[in-house]
Amino acid sequence: xxxxxxxxxxVDLKPSLARHWNGSDAFRTAxxxxxxxSFPAGEQVFIDAMRRxxxxxPAGQRTEFESEVQAFxxxxxTHRHIHGLFNAHLARQGLVNRWESRILKRRERMQAMGxxxxxxVTAATEHFTAILADHLLAHPQLLQGAEPRLRDLWxxxxxxxxxxxxxxxxxxxxxxxxxxxxxxxxxxxSWHFGADLLRQTLHNLWRDGAWWQASTWFSxxxxxxxxxGLLRLGFGPxxxxxxxxxxxxxxxxxxxxxxxxxxxxxxxxxxxxx
Length: 274
Known about the structure:
Elements: H1 26-56, H2 59-92, H3 99-109, H4 115-138, H5 148-163, H6 167-174, H7 179-208, H8 214-225, H9 230-240, H10 254-262
Helix pairs in contact: 1-2, 1-3, 1-4, 1-7, 2-6, 4-5, 4-6, 4-7, 4-9, 5-10
């Protein structure tokens, strides 16, 4: 089991965001804005899944998982709150969050599903966030020139995603989740996550007025398929989830741990005073 820490992020999100806050780059800004738009509703799905999963464990196993699951929930609740503040700025800029409504509809359809299905969805989606986390921590080019407070926000979020990458997976296994269903749900989540991220990013660019600018698409190609491209370098880690012997802990999460240790004053434990 992992020892997770719930932290509070000391980043001031009251001042407005620059329209192209990510290095004056329309595409990179639109991509990260799209990701943020998914988080408040998505994180709530994860929280609900973990609560249901923990409740269905036998008493002895519940004790084993309880501390880690509660810390996972605390971390995700903090992410949900912070990105809610971030997204409020995007709404004031005229961007429209279409992704959230699709998540909420799927969440409604999931109500009748058992906890293992919820956890399979959570574990699969957490794999995507862990891939993004590893990529950003190793290849900061995607945040090059970003407003410092927003760069810190994303790297903090990524570091915590790396830290709790195994929790949903382990709880799914503890509830008897099988491999065939894990992989089936992963294929479904891969389709929805990829399609939704693309649709929201393109919609953000349309609303922003950057759709017809050549620089937008040069940046898109470089960001996704260039030497440090997210899709180019992320395909291998994505494919690893399909291995029969896969476990999230096989990935190297040391970069996130180092970032959190080096920025303890920016993201201290919630129990800290001062």
